[in-house]
Automatic annotation (TrEMBL):
<dbReference type="InterPro" id="IPR052913">
    <property type="entry name" value="Glycopeptide_resist_protein"/>
</dbReference>
<feature type="domain" description="YoaR-like putative peptidoglycan binding">
    <location>
        <begin position="247"/>
        <end position="338"/>
    </location>
</feature>
<keyword id="KW-0812">Transmembrane</keyword>
<dbReference type="InterPro" id="IPR022029">
    <property type="entry name" value="YoaR-like_PG-bd"/>
</dbReference>
<dbReference type="Pfam" id="PF12229">
    <property type="entry name" value="PG_binding_4"/>
</dbReference>
<protein>
    <submittedName>
        <fullName>Vancomycin resistance protein YoaR</fullName>
    </submittedName>
</protein>
<dbReference type="InterPro" id="IPR007391">
    <property type="entry name" value="Vancomycin_resist_VanW"/>
</dbReference>
<keyword id="KW-0472">Membrane</keyword>
<keyword id="KW-1133">Transmembrane helix</keyword>
<feature type="transmembrane region" description="Helical">
    <location>
        <begin position="46"/>
        <end position="67"/>
    </location>
</feature>
<dbReference type="Pfam" id="PF04294">
    <property type="entry name" value="VanW"/>
</dbReference>
Length: 553
């Protein structure tokens, strides 16, 4: 073995491996005698060690020469040379070269089941080369020395690809939705519908075919797959023979009434996959409605209303009904039979949500207050018979008529209920008590809280232009009185003169003023409390007709 002497650097910039002379190593002749062979045998390990050192170091030099970048020399992707580059450099080059490759953005060809040729826009389905994944594959799988064509890693939106290919397959009548198994009735005669398989695009298989063929401009061949339903033709025939036919052969006795074959046919449903029979409870109840009308009692809540000038309670009634859910379950079990077709119809009892005792405990026994106003009487949303439970707040809402709001306020004020929210008129209305009144409109609600500890029934009556609101319950206070303070900051109304004619109507106007009022609660002859109300009215102009055009003073 010859020791490598120092030498000049090689032409490339790869490092040259150098190592020291191995002492005591020289060529030797083959020994002629056993005595000479022993020293020779002892020298062979030294020879082999030297050979291995040279080989390993030489191999290391080759690695350094071939693998100076991340990508092995000779590596190509779609014809783009990447060998000797770092991963970042290779990624940049691949993006640049592929970005200018028109063949990767032009529509490509897909063959559907070998019968239909489809042109697909790769951009529309998200078809592209995954550059980072491709570079990683080139680094991992490329050979160190020699030519290595690394296939690109291609990605695609499976859902979009499926939609495009499915639409094409439907247009070409290659894809069919299939037919689910079913059994229906024509009258009381069962009619079978036999299943047909669905034929369509397998999204995953289509994506695999397209990504493998696209980058190389090959035709992507996509097969259509058939998906058979879980229910077979034999399953339909079995259900037909064992259930559908005998089900409507005769009525089923259910206690005191019969379930007729027509009702069975109406309520027996075969659906799902696998095809499964069931009794549709709603259809069963509809079919039995004429029979159940004479057997069932509807539940009724107790209520209270004013009748004949006095509160009257309509008593509650417990409901009694056939348990059609249990009947449906039991009915399905006996339908395959030709004899002993009988089930028990169970009845369920339903208690009313509001019992007579509940209403009686509300204590609606006397009239607390009543008030009548006169006006247009437009009370479409009147709360006739409205029950306000203890602690509840009744809202008239901003859409109520001003007349109704004014009337309800007066009744609630006199009944001693808590006024949570109210809005007096902007100008004084002579037909209402000053300050102690309310109107309604956008953003202006009337809210009254029942703080009596008993129920309160609001009864509204309309007669011509009169609206009367009466509140019934249990009286808490003996009397509600009112005290007024003086009117202050009084302003006189302006006078407006208008031309006479049908559009001009005289108005007397009204003063503006501020005033306080107190609601006084009296119980057992003593004052139990008082509540202050305050309001400031604007003046309302006086309208005079016939004193000159547009004049005012």
């Amino acid at each position: 073995m010859t020791v490598l002497p120092p030498s000049a650097p090689s032409e490339d910039d790869a490092p040259t491996v150098r190592f020291a002379r191995i002492a005591g190593f020289a060529p030797v002749a083959l020994p002629n005698s056993p005595a000479e062979q022993a020293p020779a045998r002892r020298r062979w390990p030294v020879v082999m060690a030297g050979v291995l050192v040279v080989a390993v170091l030489a191999g290391g030099a080759g690695v350094a020469w071939a693998g100076r970048g991340d990508i092995p020399r000779g590596t190509r992707v779609l014809g783009v040379e990447l060998g000797g580059l770092t991963s970042a450099e290779a990624g940049d080059r691949l993006r640049t070269d592929l970005g200018g490759a028109r063949r990767l953005t032009e529509p490509f060809t897909v063959s559907l089941a070998g019968a239909e040729i489809v042109k697909v826009d790769p951009v529309a389905i998200g078809l592209a080369v995954d550059v980072p994944a491709t570079i990683a594959a080139a680094t991992r799988d490329g050979r160190l020395i020699g030519v290595a064509d690394v296939p690109p890693v291609v990605t695609v939106d499976e859902a979009k690809l499926h939609d495009v290919l499915h639409a094409a397959a439907v247009r070409a009548k290659l894809a069919t939705p299939g037919t689910p198994a079913a059994i229906t009735y024509d009258g009381t005669t069962p009619v079978p519908v036999y299943p047909e398989p669905e034929r369509g695009i397998d999204a995953r298989a289509a994506a695999a075919a397209v990504t493998a063929a696209w980058a190389h401009r090959d035709v992507a061949r996509v097969a259509l797959t058939e998906t058979p339903p879980a229910t077979t033709r034999a399953d339909v025939d079995r259900l037909l023979t064992e259930l559908a036919v005998p089900a409507t052969a005769a009525p089923v006795r259910a206690g005191v009434f019969d379930v007729a074959p027509e009702v069975i046919a109406q309520s027996l449903v075969f659906d799902g996959d696998p095809l499964t029979p069931r009794i549709d409870e709603r259809r069963l109840r509809d079919g039995l409605a004429p029979v159940l009308a004479g057997l069932e009692t509807p539940v009724r809540d107790a209520s209270v209303d004013v009748d004949g000038g006095w509160p009257r309670i309509t008593e509650s009634v417990s409901g009694r009904a056939v348990d059609t859910a249990a009947l449906a379950r039991d009915l399905l079990a006996v339908l395959p039979r030709t004899g002993d077709r009988a089930v028990t119809a169970a009845f369920t009892e339903t208690r009313p949500a509001v019992t007579t005792e509940d209403v009686e405990r509300l204590g609606i026994t006397e009239r607390l207050a009543t008030f009548t106003t006169y006006g247009p009487a437009e009370v479409a949303d009147r709360p006739a018979g409205t029950l306000i439970r203890p602690g509840d707040t009744y809202s008239l809402h901003t859409g109520a008529s001003p007349q109704l709001a004014a009337t309800v306020f007066q009744a609630a004020y006199r009944a001693g209920l808590e006024i949570v929210e109210h809005h007096p008129h902007a100008t004084y209305q002579e037909y209402l008590p000053a300050v102690l009144e309310a109107t309604s409109g956008p953003g202006r609600d009337l809210r009254v809280r029942n703080d009596t500890g008993h129920g309160v029934l609001a009864d509204v009556r309309v007669s011509g232009r009169a609206v009367t609101v009466s509140l019934w319950g249990t009286r808490v206070f003996d009397r509600i009185d009112t005290e007024y303070g003086p009117r202050t900051a009084v302003t006189e109304p302006a006078v407006e003169y208008r031309d006479p004619g049908p559009d001009c109507e005289f108005e007397p106007g009204s003063r503006g003023f501020s005033q306080d009022a107190w609601r006084i609660f009296r119980k057992d002859g003593e004052e139990a409390g008082r509540e202050k109300f305050s309001w400031t009215y604007e003046s309302r102009p006086r309208i005079v007709c016939g004193q000159g055009r547009g004049a005012s003073r």
